[in-house]
């Protein structure tokens, strides 16, 4: 089957229309930015169907690789990361369900970073031709995807502030607050807890601290009765206190009333 026929099958309004799945993370995320029609939802349902299960700690694409479609995370947690020649790394973003990685990546000849699963993930790789037609033929979806890209950039700016201006405990508290909000929006977190398949070393490489410093900061948050971290589950015991420590304001996520809590 040619790329054109694949695109027609995915986007054609004449193909069977699946029922809208209210738990679909992509639809939940994009509809929060902009109202979507039933036809828009149906297209997104088709595009995000047939996700492949990928195990944890697997590179979905490596720095230096030619891009091969837009990666969509439907379940699990992945990250963007950069590696130095000496083996050090910096995690520059967490990718949660509903996140599309590098919408305009087709413009690049080579990837400038690596995308890796942190947990088992369900992943869809959308062909570039499908993305182009989606943007051209579905303006509401295109607007939401562009808003999502702007939020990704705003989040990266906030992470730079985190590493450059906040104390160790503030950095970790801020990250925990952000993930709670982002995961709640796509239905992957309860009121105060979520799955957190991130090792202490991952966390250190995210917030720019040593492993020892991260450990001390987590112990301090536990001592203050703010969090509980058991296995792969993070529970925030005192949300207001954690937000106060982090000086967390979710406005940069542009979620409107969805982040009011």
Description:
The chain has a 4-stranded antiparallel beta sheet. With 261 residues, it is α+β, with helices and mostly antiparallel strands. Helix 2 (25-33) crosses helix 5 (139-165), helix 6 (168-185) packs across helix 8 (211-223) and helix 7 (200-207) crosses helix 8 (211-223). The relative contact order is 0.14. The longest helix has 27 residues, at 139-165. Helices cover 43% and strands 18% of the residues. It has helices at residues 3-11, 25-33, 38-47, 128-137, 139-165, 168-185, 200-207, 211-223, 239-246; strands at 52-54, 59-61, 70-75, 78-83, 89-95, 100-101, 114-117, 121-126, 193-195, 227-230, 233-236. The model is unreliable at 1-7 (pLDDT under 50). The protein has 2 domains: 3-152, Sandwich (Jelly Rolls), CATH 2.60.120; 168-259, Orthogonal Bundle (Arc Repressor Mutant, subunit A), CATH 1.10.10.
Q: How many structurally independent domains?
A: 2
- Distance from first to last alpha carbon: 48 Å
Query: β content, as a range?
Result: 15-25%
Shape: globular
What helical percentage do the residues reach?
A: 40-55%
* Number of H- or I-type helical stretches: 9
User: Over all CA atoms, what is the radius of gyration?
Assistant: 19 Å
Compose a concise summary of this entry.
By secondary structure, the protein is α+β, with helices and mostly antiparallel strands.
């Amino acid at each position: 089957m040619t790329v054109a026929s694949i695109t027609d099958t995915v986007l054609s309004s004449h193909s069977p229309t699946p029922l809208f799945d209210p738990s679909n993370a992509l639809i939940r995320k994009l509809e929060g930015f902009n109202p979507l029609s039933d036809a828009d939802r149906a297209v997104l349902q088709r595009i995000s169907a047939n996700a492949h299960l990928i195990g944890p700690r697997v590179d979905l694409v490596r720095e230096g690789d030619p891009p091969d479609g837009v990666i969509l995370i439907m379940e699990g947690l992945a990250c963007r990361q950069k590696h130095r020649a000496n083996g050090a790394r910096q995690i520059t973003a967490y990718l949660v369900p509903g996140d599309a990685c590098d919408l305009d990546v087709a413009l690049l000849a080579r990837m400038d970073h690596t995308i890796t699963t942190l947990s088992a993930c369900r992943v869809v790789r959308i062909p570039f031709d499908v993305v182009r037609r989606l943007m051209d033929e579905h303006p509401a979806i295109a607007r939401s995807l562009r808003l999502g890209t702007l939020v990704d950039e705003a989040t990266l700016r906030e992470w730079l502030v985190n590493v450059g201006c906040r104390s160790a405990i503030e950095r970790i508290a801020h990250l925990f607050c952000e993930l709670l909000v982002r995961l709640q929006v796509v239905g992957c977190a309860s009121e105060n807890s979520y799955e957190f398949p991130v090792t202490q070393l991952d966390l250190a490489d995210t917030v720019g601290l040593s492993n020892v410093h991260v450990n001390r900061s987590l112990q301090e948050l536990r001592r203050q009765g703010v969090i509980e971290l058991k296995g792969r589950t993070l529970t925030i015991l005192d949300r207001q206190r954690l937000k106060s420590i982090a000086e967390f304001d979710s406005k940069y996520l542009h979620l409107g009333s969805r982040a009011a809590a």
